[in-house]
Amino acid sequence: MKPINEERLQRVLEFIQAFERETGRSPKYREIQKEIGQTSLNMVYQDVTRLRERGLIREEANTRGGIVPDDRLASGEMVNVQLVGEIHCGEANDAIENITESYLLPVSLVGRGEHMMLRARGLSMTKRGIFPNDLLIIRPVTGYTPKANDVVAVSIGGEEACAKVVRRKEDGAFYFCADSDETDDYGRAFPDYSLKEGTVFGVIDFVFHDPRGY
Asked: Looking at residue 187, what is its pLDDT?
């Protein structure tokens, strides 16, 4: 019996797992063949069969050997969220509105409906767990009704955009503020803005933090 090529088998498994994370589906045999550089489609089938026998992947019921995605992906819907630019966590600045990347994320994590993604800049929201280079999942809104402690993406002065917390004063008036012990480049506290000075264009529902820091 021909010995099993464990190194190739591991490459097949890693490709399947990476493909599922990136696309939300499992690869076809020919996609595996192309990635691994295998000349024989039958050999790919044998490798997949071995992985299935070891319990590392599962066969989809009522199909011709289809591969079932990882349960964490198969258990729910996926939504495509586009990275469209940057948002400042500090003084307001111009957001860059260009689609640069696209991410497939589980609905169970970010929720249904339209979302967009902006990359954080600045240190004014560190108490909310937002640091430079973090990815903010933003749910676009129109006609925003203020709610205390919401973390929002707000346009200040027309084209300028920043991340702020919505707070409420004792007299009931809402305002936008930072949430950080940091200061700006001149050692000043980050400014607050009245509700009339800004327009909320989105609510920040989720943050992907970069563990490598900034």
From this structure: 78
